[in-house]
Specification:
The structure is a single chain. The protein is of the alpha+beta class and 393 residues long. It is 29% helix and 20% strand. It folds into 2 domains: 195 residues, Fructose-1,6-Bisphosphatase, Chain A, domain 1 (2-Layer Sandwich); 116 residues, 3-Layer(aba) Sandwich (D-Maltodextrin-Binding Protein, domain 2). The strands form 2 sheets. Strands 2-1-3-4-5-6-7-8 form an 8-stranded mixed beta sheet, with helices on both faces. It has a 5-stranded mixed beta sheet with strand order 10-9-11-13-12, sandwiched between helices. The longest helix has 22 residues.
């Protein structure tokens, strides 16, 4: 008996190859659910009373942000609808057995795309960037997109009310080892007072808004589950993808990071490059001699979204003490989420969201986590690593 096999059509681009990799709806499963799947491209807002956040209600993401939930506004609902659709496509690409073929077909042409302040992009970074850009164009709601994968922001349309900053696929260097990856994004209002400026200038200035001006931010974790974690300024909420229906379902309403955890997350192979203050803090907490009289454990994935997600749920502190992570599309969105969950985001000296970006790919140290852990960490003073700021991994 001949065993059927799957094959890639040679004349398809990587983006086209994965455009339909989604599980079909299971009609039998749908009969047992308390919610109804929605068209992710054309959300329907059904007027109802404000919904509760009970886990028994099984609210979808689009229900939750619509008129029956947080009511974030029709324009933002449309944008998030297209953004969650893009992330479902990325999740499918990341999980596909064929993603290694993208690397073989595209790796040779990536060297020339690297700017001086950017990491060398991986093939799936480029595909993920194309997926998000395409979805934002189709939404009609985004004026400009600033991405880790582009040297300069991309102006999309003059009439879009929003600005999106994004790291399309964080942690992609770990993709071949099936380690969790993620998408990070932040959403701002377009600065209409800049509309008279040349396109390149207004695109840049719109993208360099302070994190304190964010109206929404989120990440999508691609792991054993695909989780869409988002805040619109009134708490942090996480939705898990139901693969039988294609809906993101509310599973973690109103996340509150514990005031103190028992986990620190950092690459402590770099211990001898750290400043004295950071070494003293780590030595103290892992020996149980800190303000919390229990020994801390180290948990480090080297995937920012995954390390932050664990910290958000269990508490503690996740950090990269060197000038490595990007203020605009990594530190600002994640700090916004941390603060909305009762935590903090800091560069080791002060609040991330108070910083004014001066360059699109501006780097800085980043510390995220429980408020009491963050306060204790900063009390050691010198925690920013200045020796050997970059490593080839």
């Amino acid at each position: 008996m001949q065993i059927p096999t799957l094959s890639l059509t040679s004349n398809l681009t990587p983006l086209q190859t994965f455009s339909h990799f989604f599980p079909p709806t299971n009609s039998l499963s749908l009969q047992k659910l308390h919610y109804h799947p929605q068209n992710t491209c054309s959300p329907t807002i059904r007027p109802k009373n404000k919904m509760s956040t009970s886990l028994n209600s099984f609210h979808t993401l689009l229900d939750y942000i619509g008129k029956e939930g947080e009511d974030v506004g029709d324009d933002l609902v449309v944008l998030v609808s297209h953004l969650q659709y893009a992330c479902k496509r990325i999740a499918a690409v990341v999980a596909s057995p064929f993603n290694s073929l993208i690397g073989k077909e595209n790796e040779s042409g990536l060297g020339s795309l690297v700017g001086g302040e950017r990491d060398k992009p991986k093939p799936l970074d480029i595909v993920s960037n194309e997926i998000i850009l395409s979805s934002l164009r189709n939404s009609g709601k985004v004026a400009v997109m600033a991405s880790e994968e582009d040297d300069v922001p991309v102006w999309i349309t003059d009439n879009g009310p929003f600005v999106v900053v994004t790291d399309p696929l964080d942690g992609s260097r770990n993709i071949d080892a099936s380690i969790p990856t993620g998408t990070i994004f932040g959403i701002y209002n377009r600065l209409m007072e800049l509309d008279h400026l040349p396109t390149e200038e207004k695109a840049q200035l719109n993208s360099l808004q302070s994190g304190s001006r964010l109206i929404a931010a989120g990440y999508v974790l691609y792991s054993s589950a695909t989780i869409f974690c988002v805040s619109f300024g009134s708490g942090t909420h996480a939705f898990t993808l139901d693969h039988t229906t294609g809906d993101f379902v509310l599973t973690h309403p109103s996340i509150k990071v514990p005031s103190r955890g028992q986990i620190y997350s950092v690459n402590d192979a770099r211990y001898f490059d750290w400043p004295e203050g950071l070494r003293r803090y780590i030595d103290t907490v892992r020996q149980g001699n800190g303000k919390y009289p229990k020994k801390y454990s180290a948990r480090y994935i080297c995937s920012l979204v995954a390390d932050f997600h664990r910290t958000l749920i269990y508490g503690g502190v996740a950090m990269n003490p060197r000038d490595h992570l990007r203020l605009v599309y990594e530190a600002n969105p994640l700090s916004f989420l941390a603060e909305q969950a009762g935590g903090r985001g800091s560069d080791g000296k002060g609040r991330i969201l108070s910083l004014q970006p001066v360059k699109l790919h501006q780097r800085l140290p980043l510390f995220l986590g429980s408020p009491e852990d963050m306060e204790e960490l900063e009390s050691y003073g010198d925690v920013q690593q200045k020796i050997n700021p970059g490593y080839e991994v």
